[in-house]
């Protein structure tokens, strides 16, 4: 992902050193400083608000930028060297931007984050349409005029950095689905976070914590087949990012092309706790095991385990019960550590906790020596 010589040093999933660049973080894990050059004298500093949103930065040459957000956390303006650009939204999709010299609108494919057209100018008489030509991920490869002329064309590296700009008669800020390129910083604004395509990482940890995966700074495990339109959770492309639990999620509208479609299947998985009291009780008891801070975060983590985990059938109080297990890593003694979500006959989540060692195998198989996971065909 990088052409700079030197080692990559990562601690606690935080990139500390890459080549000649050193990275500093605050107590919340937000990147606050990038140091490079002789004696680390070239410093870029990042500033955040109380909700860990990037509100500004200062580059080594003194250039500054500041960002503002609405109550929903969407970026509504940025000011660079005294010039302000305003942004307009429809839900989680950027539909227009405006500053004193230019107005642009963006159209998308129906129920998708895949861009369809860019409209440059004011009103129907003064607007010039340009059409996006996308790859299988929904990433713009070209922009074409109504006459078919290619006015913008680029080649990318795997994690979204432009390797070669072939045609640049106009500029195009859209990158991976849901990402907007900021020329002043080189970062991609990805709705809830900022993404650095040079290193394939976000500046801040995932706001949904473990619901977005074990590594909170990771974009996606496979950038050539997955997308993350909101900067919240990875989105596997094989199922078009549709939730297996049947829950409407904004990221469900992200789509990629993977060839011939599979035959449609219907799979319903639990999405809610049996009741609020049970949710609160189990959050108090097991929330610290997942590093979550609210019952809602605990619920989101449980949904993630149910959606991504392996369904199993096990005996609980002599009754056949369905649960979901997801490998988290290893515990301090090197044993496999699993997230375990239990359900009841009504199709509700009843608990979420971690299990490892003999206790885990005894629960799912009734035998601590039987170390196999047999998926339950629902």
UniProtKB/TrEMBL annotation:
Coiled coil: none annotated. Residues 130-164 form the RHS protein conserved region domain. Residues 255-268 have a biased composition (Polar residues). Residues 241-268 are annotated as: Disordered. Signal peptide: none annotated. It comes from the Bacteria. NCBIfam families: Rhs_assc_core, YD_repeat_2x. This is RHS protein conserved region domain-containing protein.
């Amino acid at each position: 992902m990088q052409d700079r010589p030197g080692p990559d040093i990562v601690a606690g999933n935080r990139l500390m050193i890459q080549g000649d660049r050193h990275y500093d973080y605050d107590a919340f894990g937000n990147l606050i400083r990038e140091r490079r050059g002789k004696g680390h004298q070239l410093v870029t500093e990042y500033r955040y608000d109380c909700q860990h949103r990037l509100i500004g930065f200062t580059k080594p040459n003194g250039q500054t930028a500041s960002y503002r957000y609405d109550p929903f956390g969407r970026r509504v303006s940025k000011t660079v060297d005294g010039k302000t650009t305003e942004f307009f939204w429809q839900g989680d999709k950027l539909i227009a931007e405006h500053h004193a010299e230019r107005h642009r609108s963006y159209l998308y494919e129906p129920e998708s984050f895949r861009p369809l057209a860019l409209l440059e100018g004011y009103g129907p008489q003064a607007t010039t349409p340009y059409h996006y030509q996308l790859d299988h991920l929904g990433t713009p490869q070209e922009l074409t005029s109504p006459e078919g002329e290619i006015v913008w064309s680029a080649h990318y590296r795997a994690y979204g950095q432009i390797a070669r700009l072939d045609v640049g008669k106009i500029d195009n800020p859209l990158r991976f689905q849901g990402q907007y390129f900021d020329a002043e910083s080189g970062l991609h604004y990805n709705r809830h976070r900022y993404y650095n395509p040079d290193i394939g990482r976000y500046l801040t940890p995932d706001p949904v914590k473990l619901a977005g995966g074990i590594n909170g700074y990771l974009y996606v495990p496979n950038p050539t087949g997955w997308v993350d339109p909101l900067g919240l959770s990875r989105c596997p492309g094989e199922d078009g990012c549709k939730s297996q639990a049947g829950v409407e999620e904004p990221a469900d509208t992200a789509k990629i092309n993977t060839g011939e479609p599979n035959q449609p299947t219907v799979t319903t998985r639990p999405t809610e706790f049996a009741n609020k009291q049970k949710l609160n009780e189990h959050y108090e008891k097991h929330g610290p095991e997942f590093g979550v801070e609210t019952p809602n975060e605990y619920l989101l983590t449980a949904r993630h385990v149910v959606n991504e985990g392996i369904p199993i059938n096990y005996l609980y109080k002599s009754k056949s019960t369905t649960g979901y297990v997801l490998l988290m890593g290893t515990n301090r003694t090197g044993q496999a550590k699993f997230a375990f979500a239990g359900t009841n006959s009504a199709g509700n989540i009843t608990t979420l906790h971690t299990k490892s060692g003999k206790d885990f195998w005894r629960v799912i198989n009734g035998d601590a020596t039987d170390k196999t996971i047999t998926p339950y065909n629902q």
